[in-house]
Amino acid sequence: MKITDVKVHVIGTAWRNISIVQVFTDEGLEGVGEVRMLNHTDALQGYLAEALPNHVLGHDPMDIESLVQNMFRNDFARAGEIAMSAIATLEMACWDITGKALGQPVYKLLGGAVRDRIKAYANGWYTVERTPEEFHAAAKGVIAKGYRALKFDPFGAGFYELDLAEKARAIELVEAVRDAVGPDVEILIEMHGRFNPVTAVEMARELERFKPSWVEEPVPPENIAALKKAAEKINIPVATGERMHTRYEFRELLESQAADYLQPDITHFGGILETKKLAAWAENYYVLMAPHNVGGAVSTAAALHFAASTPNFKIQEHFNDFADEWVKSVAPGNPEVVDGYFALPQGPGLGVTLDLEVAKAHPRQQVFFNLFAENWHRRQALRPSEGDK
């Protein structure tokens, strides 16, 4: 079997564009991969245009390791977000094809299931005014939807430091959410790499009484020593890793034991198998995996197959019950969240089927998403010219 063609479809919402990659073979089997590129959609397409004739077309889609290694090493450049995202879309599609060819779900090809359900947490649910009353009501809606865990960033557009009023406001928002969901629901605090170590430590200590399950990216991701400095004084588990794109970038993080949970994004990390390799390495340090997932249904499918087959998995992020719920209909087939958990994915391959008519009904949007803009959490349209305001 050989890869004969690759097509890219971009679907758009008010705050994100999602690139869906279709891989075709000479035996009539098709596979699908996906990535949400944050403001880099054209860069992804440019990379694929050059990579396809050199690495992909004519390749056996079942030789997944060979395909990934060729794309990773043979260009000689140091692989980063663009290359690893492109590789991931093709890798996922090849797993989809392989599963279909063998009549098995992907997780069966990765060693089989190690659990019978997959814990989920909600994100994208707090697109409301930053008031305790609004966050309280929105959090109630998450519980009503069937979730038993939810994540949010209460820190507005903060960067490095917060003034006293913003510190108080963030604490009030977390207090409101904890009150809304009660003591038995997990709350996860997103810091988005906003803070210097001293501010991250201060805010984490203020939030300890609300018993969050983790603080995520307390400092920017480039400096592992700064993360270790913060983590040693934070009494809440630390999660990080969504902006790290190769296994090699995690070496110092694991060796310094500066994080309790790793959050690689499968769609930015070279795909499912690369993430499985990181998980095996992390298990030596008793570190758990909680993959970042801000994409659509195909990204979620890949994450569910990873979760089903990975012993040191903790919990799976999911946006699409709250942010652009129609995105699920672009590639239906995933289980829904029930009582806080996904069931195991069903069907051969990834278990989802691309609906091109739905995809075409939601074309690419000219948007720029900036986590340091005022009211970014509303996830409303922000045009490129507004990105630095």
From TrEMBL:
<dbReference type="InterPro" id="IPR013342">
    <property type="entry name" value="Mandelate_racemase_C"/>
</dbReference>
<dbReference type="InterPro" id="IPR013341">
    <property type="entry name" value="Mandelate_racemase_N_dom"/>
</dbReference>
<dbReference type="Pfam" id="PF02746">
    <property type="entry name" value="MR_MLE_N"/>
</dbReference>
<keyword id="KW-0456">Lyase</keyword>
<dbReference type="GO" id="GO:0016829">
    <property type="term" value="F:lyase activity"/>
</dbReference>
<dbReference type="InterPro" id="IPR034593">
    <property type="entry name" value="DgoD-like"/>
</dbReference>
<feature type="domain" description="Mandelate racemase/muconate lactonizing enzyme C-terminal">
    <location>
        <begin position="132"/>
        <end position="237"/>
    </location>
</feature>
<dbReference type="Pfam" id="PF13378">
    <property type="entry name" value="MR_MLE_C"/>
</dbReference>
<dbReference type="InterPro" id="IPR029065">
    <property type="entry name" value="Enolase_C-like"/>
</dbReference>
<protein>
    <submittedName>
        <fullName>Dehydratase</fullName>
    </submittedName>
</protein>
<dbReference type="InterPro" id="IPR036849">
    <property type="entry name" value="Enolase-like_C_sf"/>
</dbReference>
<dbReference type="InterPro" id="IPR029017">
    <property type="entry name" value="Enolase-like_N"/>
</dbReference>
